[in-house]
Design goal:
Distance between the termini: 33 Å
Helix content: 25-40%
Number of strands: 10
Number of domains: 1
Bound molecules: adenosine-5'-diphosphate, magnesium ion
Radius of gyration: 18 Å
Strand content: 25-35%
CATH superfamily: P-loop containing nucleotide triphosphate hydrolases
Mean pLDDT: 97
Number of helices: 9
Structural class: alpha/beta
Low-confidence stretches: none
CATH topology: Rossmann fold
């Protein structure tokens, strides 16, 4: 579904992503893990087109994602939902309006149709009763569940998550992970940057380990956790467990 070929991204002198290649297939749940500053967010943002790549290419279903081919690129990007660490909800809009806005502006759905879809997904994440609330009236976990519902309203073929639980208090992490687990069970293709090693081990089917912009190791998640091959992955795991 997604193929990343030799992608590199610099910020000034920093080589944030350095020649990374990977493939994500339909139904995969892939976790990107690695130390802070290893390039996980940059890689995810390059896949989604939030950053342009300096070198290499990203393909979706065999077709190049090319920013110069504007209409097609927009369509390709719209097939991916993105969930941010800090939710990025519109603070001055209700939960329902947060979920309908892009449906109406980007997908040109009628308000009626957009609301129907929004209510369906708000129900799925357990927040139907919050539809008229504003983001600042919600807990962090609730905000993140709204952000997930909002992304799902666009009917993406895959979902990208950048540390979706890192800004949450411990008791709220679980409710968000449960929503993500459910999504996975329903067959959603997902790429998840996370420090939640339980999720990476038990929910993801594959783990990619990054260090200093390099994809150092990748493998079946259970195998990665029981028997990491590289010294850097061993060292990382010894610090997080
Ligand atoms: P991670 O998500 O694994 O913590 P990042 O992808 O955020 O890592 O960052 C990788 C490297 O790129 C870091 O050295 C970071 O400081 C740098 N970097 C990321 N984004 C920017 C940016 N917009 N401008 C300058 N440097 C950046
Ligand atoms: Mg990051």
């Amino acid at each position: 579904m997604i193929k990343v070929e030799h992608v590199s991204k610099h910020f000034g002198g920093v080589h944030a992503v350095n020649g990374v290649s990977l493939e994500v297939n339909k139904g995969d749940i892939v976790c990107l893990i690695g130390p802070s500053g290893s390039g996980k967010s940059t890689l995810l943002r390059c896949i989604h087109g939030l950053e342009t790549v300096d070198d290499g290419a990203v393909y979706m279903d065999g077709e190049l994602m090319d920013p110069a081919d504007k209409a097609k690129y927009r369509e390709q990007r719209n097939r991916m939902g993105f969930v941010f660490q800090h939710f990025n909800l519109f603070p001055n809009k209700t939960v329902l309006d947060n979920c309908t806005l892009a449906q109406m502006t980007v997908l040109k759905r009628s308000r009626e149709e957009a609301e129907k879809t929004a209510l369906e997904y708000l129900d799925k994440v357990g927040l139907l009763d919050k539809k008229d609330s504003y983001p600042n009236q919600l807990s962090g976990g609730q905000k993140q569940r709204v952000a997930i519902a909002r992304a799902l309203c666009m009917n993406p073929d895959m979902m990208l998550f950048d540390e979706p639980t890192s800004a949450l208090d411990p008791e709220m992490i679980k409710e968000v992970l449960e929503v993500m687990k459910d999504l996975g069970r329903q067959g959603m293709t997902m790429i998840v940057v996370t420090h939640e090693m339980g999720f990476a081990r038990h929910v993801a089917n594959r783990v990619l380990f990054l260090d200093q912009g390099h994809l150092v190791e990748e493998g079946d998640s259970e195998a990665f956790f029981t028997n990491p091959k590289s010294e850097r992955a061993k060292d990382f795991l010894s610090k997080v467990f």
